[in-house]
Request: fold
Amino acid sequence: MCKMDGTGVPVVKKETEGRKGKTDGQPAHTREVKLGCVFTQTTWDKEGYAIRDPDSTTYTGAIETAEEFGKRIYLEAWINAHQKRLLDKGKIEKLVLSLRSTESTHTEVLEKIRTEADYFQRNAGRMRYPKFRRQHLFVGSGVIEAGCKTVIGSRLKQSGMFWTVRGANAIIALRCRHLNGRFEDYWESRPAA
Reply:
């Protein structure tokens, strides 16, 4: 779980089965997480400030040395600038070929790239974005990503939250009903205790 320490540096709680976070008088068991954000600039505003293309933003992060992270962020920038154009143009086969030909000495990064290439290859038929746009179909994941943050993340992924699957499903059902404007209907449909 990412959080900020008192200096504004992102830290991550070391996950240990059955163990809570910081306990009074005990160390917090945190590690420094390096997080990078890569995006493209589309144009400038009237004052001359660069305007970021919000759909181009990608993140990469890990607990590693600055040297290792430097390689990671460089690779993410290269992938973001070049590969996004291929994806937007629906050239999935070229994208897969480009990903598979990427070289790196960082095995973890290379494994991630290969996994992504496999994903694109398996789902190529679903990624023909120019064709879908010509058919006036909605293309984008922003709505569901925002929903995940609002419905799930804001209740189940906060620091210190513990839950069972049964409890999580109950909360998810309640949050969905509430956001759909059908909260009262939920209670009316529940059997009397």
User: Anything to note?
Assistant: Residues 33-135 form one domain. The chain has a mean pLDDT of 76. The two ends are 37 Å apart (CA to CA). The chain has two domains: 33-135, 143-189.
